[in-house]
Design a protein that fits this description.
Catalyzes the specific phosphorylation of the 3-hydroxyl group of shikimic acid using ATP as a cosubstrate. Pathway: Metabolic intermediate biosynthesis; chorismate biosynthesis; chorismate from D-erythrose 4-phosphate and phosphoenolpyruvate: step 5/7. GO terms for molecular function: shikimate kinase activity. Belongs to the shikimate kinase family. InterPro entries: P-loop_NTPase, Shikimate/glucono_kinase, Shikimate_kinase/TSH1, Shikimate_kinase_CS. The chain is α/β, with parallel strands linked by helices. The protein has a single domain, classed as Rossmann fold (3-Layer(aba) Sandwich). The protein is about 55% helix and about 10% strand. The chain has 7 helices and 5 strands, in the order βαβααβαβααβα. A 5-stranded parallel sheet has the order 2-3-1-4-5, with helices on both faces. It is globular and about 50 Å long. The two termini are about 30 Å apart.
């Protein structure tokens, strides 16, 4: 069994949906951002001190380590993790789910953006630009994409489980 990896833009619910999905599947849930913080400290402070390039390098190493765990897990990645082509290559052997989100939903979830270093002083303008730059990459990596229409955490987790374990439709009954 492969890991289930959640990707998508900032504010799409990767961490919360990942935790709910892991409970349903009886798997551990790991958030790469939380793992980064535990190892290196605050992401905004790390960005300021070391820059994005160093952050992405360390993020890649953490993701490689998490994906290499012997126990299949649900792993939530930071929004920019897919920018590293080495990380994208690692995702090819995993089950990857993109959680999509509308700009209106993002505005409600990211607030003033102070905890998200790539957003700067105009968080929604930056979010919209970043989403436009990354959407194609997210979709290219994903085995399934969950529409932004499913707003509830529970609904999103249930949808993923249903898509991972489709029930036979009974249409292919041949004597």
């Amino acid at each position: 069994m492969s890991n289930i990896v959640l990707i998508g833009p900032m504010g799409s619910g990767k961490s919360t949906v990942g935790a709910a999905l892991a409970r349903r599947l009886g798997r551990p849930h790991v958030d790469s951002d939380h793992f980064f913080v535990a190892r290196y400290g605050s992401i905004p402070e790390y960005f300021r001190a070391h820059g994005e390039k160093d952050f992405r390098e360390r993020e890649h190493r953490i993701i490689a380590e998490l994906l290499d765990s012997p126990r299949p897990s649900v792993i939530s990645l930071g929004g920019g993790a897919v920018l590293d082509e080495r990380t994208r290559a690692l995702l090819k052997d995993q089950t990857v789910v993109m959680l999509d989100i509308t700009p209106d939903q993002a505005a409600l979830r990211i607030g003033d953006g102070t905890s998200r270093p790539v957003l700067g002083d105009e968080p929604m303008e930056a979010w919209t630009r970043i989403y436009a730059e990354r959407e194609t990459i997210y979709r290219a990596c994903a085995d399934m994409v969950l529409s932004a229409d499913d707003e509830s955490i529970e609904t999103r987790a249930d949808t993923i489980v249903a898509r991972l374990n489709p029930t036979p439709s009974g249409d292919d009954t041949t004597p």
